[in-house]
Structures
1.
Amino acid sequence: MKLLLDTHILLWAAGEPERLSKRAHTLLSSPENTLFFSAASFWEIVIKLGLGRRDFRVDPYRLRKELVAHGYVELPVMAEHVLGLQSLPPIHKGPFDRILLAQARSEGLLLVTADAAVAEYGEPTIFVR
């Protein structure tokens, strides 16, 4: 499977793996799965670091370098992804989660999330809480 990790799953996988559920560990460790991260997640991380959020204490440069070194695939934000926001129902208002959903739909990826509100969208999400 091709899996796009939401920002929290990405941060937990990289720095706090004990916070991942057993299902998340299984998905992320399977060699059959290709793991993607979005540039939008780094946008979110940088903004929330600037706001002093304690749950976003990470060096984004180091994180990106480590992800790429471990075989994660970087997904840029494209105009096609942004346009896909028009077709998303207003279940979740978080702009970063919404762009990740639009990217997953556009690219044929499954979005791995621990956010119940995001999981309400159904396909293309995998709820791992």
2.
Amino acid sequence: MPKKEYDTFVLGDPAMVPEEKETELIVRDLTPADRRYKYRSAYVTALVSKDESKYPDRLWIRLGKGQLQEKPWSIKILKELNKVPKG
């Protein structure tokens, strides 16, 4: 099965994103089965790592103004949360 790809926006320093700990974040699905749902956002609990091969899926990091970071991270989505994140 091919890797799924997601992206997320990081408003501060990407180095401050907790690695290898359960983290709540908003991700956008870049590779849905149905193309009509590309960029669908979901609020999830996930494990993330700067090591691209640590977890099964790929996570692209974007800075606050949308600048795409050069290297992808890896992500393992544990569950999709059914709530609105605090702003």
